[in-house]
Amino acid sequence: MRNEYIPFISEITEVIKHTDIEYTFRMTYEGDVRPGQFFEVSLPKYGEAPISVSGIGDGTVDLTIRKVGHVTGEIFENYVGDKLFLRGPYGNGFDVDDYKGKEILVVAGGTGLSPVRGVVDYFATHQSEAKSLTLIAGFKSPNDILFFEDIARWKQHAQVILTVDCAEGDTDCHIGLVTQFIPDIKIENMDEAVAVVVGPPIMMRFSVMGLLDLGLKEENIWISQERKMCCGIGKCGHCKIGESYVCIDGPVYRYPEGKLLID
Amino acid sequence: MGYTLSKEQFETLVNRLSEQYQVFAPVKFVGGNTFTDVDVIRYDQVKNPEEIVLDQKSDYSFKEVLLPLSETLFYYTEEQTKEADIPRGEAVVFLRSCEMHAVKVLDDIYLNNKFEDYYYKRLRDKIKFIVIACPESFDSCFCVDMGTNKPEGQDMIIEQQGDQFLVVNENPQWEAYFEGYAKVDQAPSYAKENKVKVHIPENLNPNIAKSSIWEEYDTRCIACGRCNFVCPTCTCFTMQDILYSDNGKAGERRRVQASCMVDGFTDVAGGGSYRKKFGERMRFKMMHKVYDFRKRFGYNMCVGCGRCDDVCPEYISFSANINKLEEGMKEVGEEHA
Ligand code: SF4
Ligand code: SF4
Ligand code: FES
CB of B289 closer than 6 A to ligand 2? Predict the structure, then answer.
């Protein structure tokens, strides 16, 4: 039987620096993987950190790492070694089939854009597979914007609303919270339109409320839960909420199930 | 069908088992409690059959034989990993009926919760269980109400009856140990009544989080986690990396037992954490034990061993807490919103 705990070595093929504290590491990986799944990235002696897949390439996966913790801090300082230990992918991830042929609305806050980046990218490149695609992405300041080049590219094929608490006089960005822009979204078929919401808990809560007010159906809204994933395989208990283990049943939930999870 | 063994014959049996197996059983450590100098009964490998404590409940459960307090998973250098060797060989563990039911809980989490756990499985495959029958319940047990008072799935049951032992063997491979012993037609006893009674309300649901019954624990509980560490069905762990020397590049990764009552359990990178209040942690633990696990696996996780009540330094009683759930549900109503 497989020993899930032993990581494999993955080469870093590219490092894309978004901000001072957020880099995307493009890592070699062969195998099935979905957007919204995660890998446990480890640096021996510092431990492991769950990092969601922010992009899928040919023989590679992108892992966008934010320098916030002990392990991620060390990965930043020490990645020069050109490889990292990985295990995964874990979690259910997003299934783009759920959204095909529909009006798609993606609401992302901060690093929440990482797990949905693959979904947005898929429909921005396969435009005929969705009726429409709207992305509302919010960041703290212009310096915090992730995937700047992707966003520029997506703008050609999707409606993109980029919001920041930005500097005055900057005309290309909206000021304010992502939730402010939800009521103005034009939806033709409320019964079918789908939405994906990922970000900090409060942002998710208000965004979902906004989407429901707009007229979307609960079962057409997906959220992704961030928890302290440690084992990734339903054993360590750290990610458990109610009867659900975020690492194996999630992190992506349809809202009617996700809303019942009480920490 | 059982056998009646004299004390000497029982000791011979344990010694013969020891030739083939590492025998683990509750053993008394004099002055061995970490926090005070009172005695503690916990599991250890038995060298002499007389060490086995048969007349008291162990303070810590058998679970350490399957889930060591700290278990090395692999060794690493910057370039390589090497799986840790299995820490023991074939083993026999003496435990009680409620704990035999706890084995099922551990199996469901470690073998049946989507992934099979490699390290658990290799220890689990090499273990046999001998149940120490409980003719009488101990003070804090509530196994009858939890449905765990009759053992299931063991290899053998033993019951001390004065100077003699009733031994019921359920493992055909062990029949040879009993050649020449007198058979008796007697079934082992089990606890039919407990002093402590619990009732889990049928309408229990996650709404109970809104109830005020949890508030008292915000101040009473000190979040020490002892209730988790003694519990035979608490199975959480945290990963830990150990470096062999400060400048060296080699080390090992371990998993160590963790507690949902202790600070830090839910911390996410960047400073977020869930369930800051101790009452919320109590509710989380309670709901896992008597609700969430049942939703997932079909039966309750808590086996009613009462160890959490015995160990709590603040005299918090889990069983009394169970009995408050009904009031709590009346307070909040069933409507899930
Ligand atoms: S309930 Fe008691 S044993 Fe458990 S954490 Fe609180 S004080 Fe410690
Ligand atoms: S919760 Fe308490 S009574 Fe229930 S199995 Fe755990 S230690 Fe025993
Ligand atoms: S991360 Fe360990 S159980 Fe989910």
Answer: yes
Decide: pTM greater than 0.90: yes
For each of chain A's 263 residues, which pLDDT tens digit applies? 899 999 999 999 999 988 888 889 999 999 999 999 999 998 777 788 899 999 999 999 999 988 877 777 777 776 656 888 999 999 999 999 999 999 999 999 988 999 999 999 999 999 999 999 999 999 888 888 899 899 999 999 999 999 886 555 555 555 567 788 899 899 999 999 999 999 988 889 999 999 999 999 999 999 998 777 899 999 999 999 999 999 999 999 999 988 767 77
Tokens for B192, please give them. 């039919």
Residue to mutate, A225, A231, A244, A263, ligand 3, most ligand atoms under 8 Å from C-beta: A231
Supply the ipTM of this predicted assembly.
Answer: 0.92
**CB distance from B224 to chain A under 8 Å?**
no
Question: What is the distance in A from the centroid of ligand 3 to the CA of A208?
Answer: 26
Inter-CA distances, B214 with A258, B98, B267, B277, B324, Å: 24, 27, 21, 10, 10
Give B249's Cβ-side CA count (13 Å radius).
8
A169 class by beta-carbon count within 10 Å (0-12 exposed, 13-18 middle, 19+ buried) = exposed
Q: Is the peptide bond before A201 cis (omega within 30 degrees of 0)?
A: no
B238 vs A5, A236, A248: nearest CB: A236
Q: Are B210 and B328 in contact (CB under 8 A)?
A: no
Q: From CA A110, how far away is CA A137, in angstroms rounded?
A: 7
Which domains does chain A show, CATH number per domain? 8-90 (2.40.30.10), 96-258 (3.40.50.80)
